[in-house]
Amino acid sequence: MTMDNALERRPNPDDLNDRGLSETQDERVSYLRAGHTLRSWLLTTDHKRIAILYLISVTLFFFIGGAAAALVRADLLTPQADLLTNEGYNRAFTLHGVIMVWFFLIPSIPNTFGNFLIPLMIGARDLAFPRLNLLSWYIYMLGGLFTVFVLIAGGVDTGWTFYTPLSSMFSNGHVVMVAVAVFVVGFSSILTGLNFIVTVHKLRAPGMSWGRLRLFVWAHYATSLILVLATPVLSVTLALVAAERLFGLGIFDPKLGGDPLLFQHLFWFYSHPAVYIMVLPALGVVSELVAASARKPVFGYRFIAGSSIAIAIIGFLVWGHHMFVAGQSMYASAVFSFLSLAVAVPSGIKVYNWTATLYKGHIELDPPFFFAASFIGLFVVGGLTGLVLAMLAVDVHLHDTYFVVAHFHYIMVGGTVSAYFGALHFWWPKMSGRIYPRIWGRLAAIFIFLGFNLTFFPQFILGYLGMPRRYHVYDPSFQVLHVLSSAGASILGVAYLMPFTYLFWSMRYGAPAGPNPWDVRGLEWTVPSPPPKHNFEEIPVVTGPPYDYPLEREGDQGEAGDAAEGNAAEGNAGSRA
Amino acid sequence: MSLVRTLSLVWAALLGLLLLTLGASFALTGPASLAASLAIAVAKAALIYWFFMHLREEGGLVRLAALGVAAWLVIFTLLTSADYAMRP
Amino acid sequence: MSERIELHEPFSDAAQQHEAGMLGMYVFLGTEMMLFGGVFAVIFVTRALHPAEFVAASQKLHVFIGALNTGVLLTSSFAVALAVAFARAARARLAAGLLVAAAGLGLVFLGLKAFEYTLEIHEGLLPLFSRPANFSGPVEHLFMNLYLVATSLHAIHMTIGVVLLTGLAWRIARGGVPLPGRVALVENSGLYWHFVDVIWVFLYPALYLAR
């Protein structure tokens, strides 16, 4: 990013006191200024505006879920039950789980950055069904506000997994209402997934073949497949739990010949693939950040793209690993254990290819690179501990301990949330049209990384030593590690708030970004920042591969060599000096 | 209009399959009955999808979408029943 | 014919719009299929756990009313398929008439279903309306619970379909839906109706014909 160019792009280059306060020419015709009324936002069908609506609401729910996490961590500072009652603690971690899973992690990257970027990246004016897109946001808000209402009404204490028979027969929280809220928000997921699938199939610009799609788009396509195939099963499962509670259906009740474990089959058929709904878009973001940081063609493009699809498919075959100690048949467990190990292969492919892409790249220490690098490290730790848990015998020791909690937080928070912030820092100049101070971005990334590790690494040890999850009264010998974890969480909390100060600051005081502030390749960097309402004046014609950065060495063969040939039709501004 | 004739034939075939599955339920029991009724239901669904729901006219993509869902239901049922079939 | 199709943002030609609409509708029906897939999985697991009791409970259902209803539904699907064919040929009145006929058959289905429910209430078999003590055993109770959940979920979809087809027929008859310009509306409503039919095609043997 070259500041000098940015300064020249100010609205009044001669006025040294004008630090970008006034509008640029691009901003005057951008999607942000296409209508100023509240109505023009709430009834918009522009995918970019809907992305902004999602960005605001998803971030809001992130902080609500974070507040619940803060309560949990505060209560765990001491081995006694001093801050929260048993009931209150159960409700706090349930609320944390429900909000973070369904109202932050699942919609986070797809509905904000996917919505904003997919049409721009494939050369389309909008998603295939713009009105469905808006409807999906309203459904999301309906489900979200209903959840907040349930929270005020007293909450629910089953954990986000709603295991039967606790949820169906014994829990006295508002299980039915939360089930309704999650049922409702499921339709939002389905509509988004449907929209992305049809858009990627049918609205690609001329010349934008599947082999020229950006890896971000590939990842979102794979995510959408899971969204549409898995979410309905969750909907029907929650409907059955609600019916079981209200009418004593008996499907999950052994007294009537039902089977409580059947709930776990139905639930995890959705919820394990849902983990990949949360992480696949993050993998797509990191593929983009890595390519942009290295500024050279992606190593193993086909393998990264294919591994996204492989994760989506194999991810559907592993759900039984949540039930190793729940009474599932041992033989079925063995099959699920094997398949769970297999899903690590495509994830590994991605990590190796990112590393190879970065090797000898032109890396500048921009904030997006910091987030990408911390993502890779945390994802590797989270992924490898997942292999540990997929082993049948080891899982007997570690099941339902803090080891599991640490494992999935490394993937969900270390992975997805890092990627969410990485995406925010990478595409913020495109979305807002302004540049934020890079030094603050770097600091935020470093604090998030440190705070995260301090919070969750001790939990691996806690779990290995035998601290069970979902307990708030614990053996005093665990206290040191819990205090470390809570201290880390406070750093993490502050670090998550940091970006919002300087990003808001940049909207008013930041220098105009220009179309391509990072000097990278891709269709979204060929349109002005912020983009005009209809994205492209004319639908672009694509003639070259993605990531067509120039190569330095002559005589290179293979994928990189191919990539260097056809030049970008995108007329890219970024020839590196 | 030959299309009307085709659709009428499909309708007749569907009603024929209905009688067949009804008859099979009186003739067969146990797993054979389940297999027969499932197979006939799949045949009926295939006729409806192919002729009534325009799969015949559509490209590979839409056909794939229809088949993909069927494949996922098979995965779901197979892996779930793997547990129930192999429990001690 | 393709020039007469109305185009909407963000599509650039009629074929693209048609394929996108078709794919979107198929993906949506796929999600509906997965929704019912959960119910079918529960039915099959229950049968696998208690084969004998499941068959005994299934034998108490009114198998011929079910068969009649299947026939009614298959016929209504036939009517919808014809309606789409005529809508594509711009024969609006005929298309509207066939849609009304299909919706009428849908009402016949729902009426027969309601009649069946009343019979079951008299026999003390329908959950919510009968005392649990009337059941011969817990599995019969569970089976009838499943039966009620599955058939009522299907009936909800049927009701939506009847409203959809009636409204569409009314709009076509009033000239509110120019044909074949907006034939996609007829096609998609038709797809939904056929899908609801397909669900019943599987529900009928799964519940009524377990032997």
UniProtKB/TrEMBL annotation, chain A:
Gene Ontology molecular function terms on file: cytochrome-c oxidase activity; heme binding
Record's bilayer topology term? Multi-pass membrane protein
Q: Name one GO biological process term.
A: respiratory electron transport chain
Q: Which InterPro entries match?
A: Cyt_c_oxase-like_su1_dom (IPR023616), Cyt_c_oxase-like_su1_sf (IPR036927), Cyt_C_Oxase_1 (IPR000883), Cyt_c_Oxase_su1_BS (IPR023615)
Q: Where in the cell is it found?
A: Membrane
Coiled coil stretches, renumbered? none
Main localization category:
membrane
Top-level lineage group: Bacteria
KW Membrane (keyword) present? yes
Q: Does the keyword Metal-binding apply?
A: yes
Name one cellular component (GO) term: membrane
Q: Matching SUPFAM superfamilies, A to Z?
A: Cytochrome c oxidase subunit I-like (SSF81442)
Q: What stretches pass through the bilayer? A: 51-72, 92-113, 134-156, 176-200, 221-247, 267-291, 303-324, 330-349, 369-394, 406-427, 439-461, 481-505
Composition skew (Low complexity), residue ranges: 560-577
Annotated region described as Disordered, given as residue ranges: 1-22, 536-577
Q: Which positions fall inside the Cytochrome oxidase subunit I profile domain?
A: 41-543
Q: Supply the alphabetized keyword list.
A: Electron transport, Heme, Iron, Membrane, Metal-binding, Respiratory chain, Transmembrane, Transmembrane helix, Transport
**Which protein family is it in?**
Belongs to the heme-copper respiratory oxidase family.
Q: What is this protein called?
A: Cbb3-type cytochrome c oxidase subunit I
Gene source species:
Ancylobacter mangrovi
Lineage, opening ranks? Bacteria, Pseudomonadati, Pseudomonadota, Alphaproteobacteria, Hyphomicrobiales
From TrEMBL, chain B:
Q: How does it sit in the membrane?
A: Multi-pass membrane protein
The places in or outside the cell where this protein is found are: Cell membrane
Cellular component, GO annotation:
plasma membrane
Q: Which UniProt keywords apply?
A: Cell membrane, Membrane, Transmembrane, Transmembrane helix
**Principal subcellular localisation of the protein:** membrane
Keyword Membrane attached: yes
Q: List the transmembrane segments.
A: 33-52, 64-86
Q: Which InterPro entries match?
A: Caa3_sub_IV, Cyt_c_oxidase_su4_prok
**Record protein name field:** Cytochrome C oxidase subunit IV family protein
Source taxonomy lineage? Bacteria, Pseudomonadati, Pseudomonadota, Alphaproteobacteria, Hyphomicrobiales
Automatic annotation (TrEMBL), chain C:
Q: Where in the cell is it found?
A: Cell membrane; Membrane
Query: What residue ranges are annotated as transmembrane?
Result: 26-49, 61-87, 94-115, 146-170, 191-210
GO CC terms, sorted: plasma membrane
Name the InterPro entries for this protein: Cyt_c/ubiquinol_Oxase_su3 (IPR024791), Cyt_c_oxidase-like_su3 (IPR000298), Cyt_c_oxidase_su3-like_sf (IPR035973), Cyt_c_oxidase_su3_a-hlx (IPR013833)
Q: Which domain of life is it from?
A: Bacteria
What positions does the domain Heme-copper oxidase subunit III family profile occupy?
Answer: 23-211
Per its UniProt record, what PROSITE patterns does this chain match?
A: COX3
How does the record say this protein sits in the membrane? Multi-pass membrane protein
Record bears the keyword Transmembrane? yes
Per the record, the GO terms for biological process are: aerobic electron transport chain
Q: Which GO terms describe its molecular function?
A: cytochrome-c oxidase activity
Q: Which UniProt keywords apply?
A: Membrane, Transmembrane, Transmembrane helix
Question: Into which family does the record put it?
Answer: Belongs to the cytochrome c oxidase subunit 3 family.
Name assigned to this protein: Cytochrome c oxidase subunit 3
Q: To which species is this protein native?
A: Ancylobacter mangrovi
